[in-house]
Design brief:
Length: 77
């Protein structure tokens, strides 16, 4: 396969992945999730979606929090 075709397909796949992520993040708004903190401002839901905290949290804590929104890459609480 020619290089330009490979790059074009890769760009289309990245765009589709970005669109799917945005739809997933938007669908989580208002949903209550159990979140495991991995760092002071980073956690993951049980489905492994990244979560950004506005304030520092203790690492390794498991919390039930309602999703406020997202920043385009991660959920926000």
């Amino acid at each position: 396969v020619a290089g330009p075709a490979i790059r074009d397909r890769a760009a289309r796949l990245r765009a589709a992945g970005d669109a799917a992520l945005r739809l997933h993040l938007e669908a989580q708004r208002g949903v209550l999730h159990r979140i495991l903190t991995e760092g002071p401002r980073l956690g993951r839901t049980e489905q492994f979606t990244e979560v950004r905290f506005a304030e520092d949290q203790p690492e390794g804590a498991l919390m039930a929090l309602r999703v406020a929104g997202h920043d385009g890459q991660r959920l926000t609480v």
